[in-house]
Specification:
Elements (H helix, E strand, L loop, with lengths): L7 H29 L5 H18 L14 H13 L9 E3 L2 E5 H12 L10 E2 L4 E5 L4 E4 L8 E10 L3 E10 L4 E2 L5 E2 L5 E9 L5 E8 L3
Antiparallel strand pairs: 1-2, 2-5, 3-4, 4-5, 6-7, 7-10, 8-9, 10-11
Length: 220
């Protein structure tokens, strides 16, 4: 039997649902953090919110720890870069589609990879596990095949401290389990207690932007 092809409009709608779900998760975190922690100054709250938005796609599927990004699991880093592209409101109609999903050009993944992890580690392309979703790499198309499906991030970040140094920023980050968020009777979001805390070190580039250099456990 000949396989029935899915229409491009249906694929676009599916991708929009996926993208909106991801954006909604990040927006949920940022909005909630603005009202939850009243003990942090407005200046720090804004700064911490910027860090949280940057690292949200990095911690969403709880990657393995690494002391240096050059020895991190490369497949996990590529997966993070892909999710970060999808979380940045891409225009679905500009992409090519197949029966299996949307084709995300490797050039976009490479650009996002560099912005997240700097230039100390070089990306290589292959099939990767996207936290329960397989991102298949097409050598012929020079692109990743993105299935049209949704996913709920495992964790969202809450930055509780930031130590800024000359060449790095050390963040203390609470990992908030996504399934534990609640709403009160007025519809306000209630933040869960962090399931764990991690230290995320950001390296600082020459243009004052930053990248993830290390993810480490914090000793009890």
């Amino acid at each position: 039997m000949k396989k029935k092809k899915r229409s491009k409009p249906n694929l676009i709608v599916g991708l929009l649902i996926l993208a909106l779900a991801l954006v909604g998760c990040v927006s949920l975190v940022i909005t909630a953090m603005e009202s939850i922690d009243k003990t942090i100054s407005d200046k720090n709250a804004e700064k911490y919110g910027t860090y949280e938005k940057f690292i949200a796609p990095v911690i969403m599927n709880d990657p393995d720890t690494f002391d240096d990004v050059t020895v991190a699991d490369l497949g996990q880093l590529v997966s993070i870069a892909i999710w970060s592209v999808l979380d940045s409101n891409p225009e679905p109609d500009k992409y090519e589609y197949t029966d299996d999903g949307m084709l995300l050009p490797q050039s976009e993944v490479e650009e996002k990879f560099k912005s997240l992890f700097g230039s100390e580690v070089q990306i290589t392309h292959s099939n990767v596990d996207g936290g329960g979703i397989d991102f298949r790499y097409s050598e012929k198309k020079k692109a990743y095949v993105i299935p049209i499906t949704g996913i709920t991030p495992i964790y969202t970040p809450k930055v509780t401290d930031a130590k800024e140094k000359s060449s790095s920023i050390e963040l203390t980050v609470g990992y908030l389990y996504s399934g534990d968020w609640q709403q009160d009777s007025q519809g306000n979001m209630i933040s869960p207690e962090p399931g764990k805390y991690m230290k995320i070190t950001l390296g600082i580039n020459s243009d004052s932007t930053y990248y993830v250099r290390a993810i480490q456990k914090i000793s009890d």
